[in-house]
Amino acid sequence: MIRRVGVLIGLAVVAMLSTGPLVGAGEAWAHAGGLTSSSSEPVVLGIEPAVAGLDVSVVEFGARMRIDNGTGARVTVLPTPGSVVNALPTVAPGSSALWADPRVAFAAAQPTPPERRLAWTIPLRVGDDQVTVLGEQRWPPSPAAGLWWLLLAVMVAIPATVVAACTRRGGLAAGRVVVAVSTLVVIVAHMVHIYGSALVPAQGQVIWLFLSAAGFAVVAWPIGLAGAYATLRGHQAGPLLCLVAGALIAVIISPADIFSFHDAVVPFAWGADLDRFLIALNVGGGLGVIAAATILLRRTPDTEQRHAR
Known about the structure:
Layout (H helix, E strand, L loop, with lengths): L1 H17 L1 H4 L17 E8 L5 E6 L4 E6 L5 E3 L12 E2 L4 E4 L2 H7 L8 E10 L2 E10 L6 H24 L3 H27 L7 H9 L2 H16 L4 H17 L18 H26 L3 H8 L1
Antiparallel strand pairs: 1-8, 2-3, 3-6, 4-5, 4-7, 7-8
Helix pairs in contact: 4-5, 4-9, 5-6, 5-7, 5-8, 5-9, 7-8, 8-9
C-alpha cells in the first residue's frame, strides 16, 4: 500500500511540473490574470472638459484603465510630455480599450500620503481636442490583519484537536470523518477562492482564467477528493492522500495570498473579507488537515494492535 501511495505522490509531482505553463512565469497562483492585492486603488473623478459618449473607468481593482469610446471621433491616450512611453492605446469610435497607465502605477508606488489620497491626470486627444482625465489614488483603511491571522490559527487547531480527542478515546471512525470532511472543506474553499478571482479580469474566458489561477490545484483537488473517499472507507492510504492535498494547498499554492490579510484592496469578485476568510481556510485548514491526518496515520488499526500488545 505504501509503495502505491509513493508512486501516486511521484505522479502528482510530475503532473505539477507539467502544469507549469498553466500558471505562467512570475504570476501569482492564487489570482487570475496575475493580479495581486494592493494597499491602494485608483478612482476616476471625471473628464475635463466633459465629452458626451466618452467613458473612462478603472477595472481589475485598479490594475488597468478602460476607455469606452461612444463619440464620433478617435480617442488617443497621450503620454506625459517628455515621457518615452509609447504603448498607449488609440480607440476608434464605437470601440473600447484596456491599458495599464504608467501615471496610475507611479501614484500607486508612492508612500501613503497623510491625507491618503494622491491626484493624477491622464491627457487624451479626442479628435482634434485635448481633454484630461482627472483621478486620484486612494488608500483605504488597512484590514485588521491580526484577526485574520488568529482565524488562520483557529483553522489549524480545529481539525487537529478534534482528531486527537477522537483517537485518544478510540474513535478512529470519527477521526476519519473529521479528516475527510476537513479536506473537502479546504478543497471547496479553494475552488470558490479561485473562481471569485477568475471573475475579475476584464478579458479572457472564465474557464481559462480559472485553470490559470488554479495552477497546481488541478492536481491537489483530485488527490484530496480521492483521499477523502479512501479515508471514509477506512483505507490506510486515505489520510496520507489528504495530507498531500492539504500540503499542496496550504504550503505551495496559497501562501502568496497571505498578503491579502494586510492589503485593503483584494482582486476578488465577492468582497475582500470573504476572500480573506477563504484564504484562512485554504492555508489554516490545509495545515490543520496535515496535522489531523498525521495524528490519524499514527493511530491506524495496526498501530493500535501493537500498542495493545
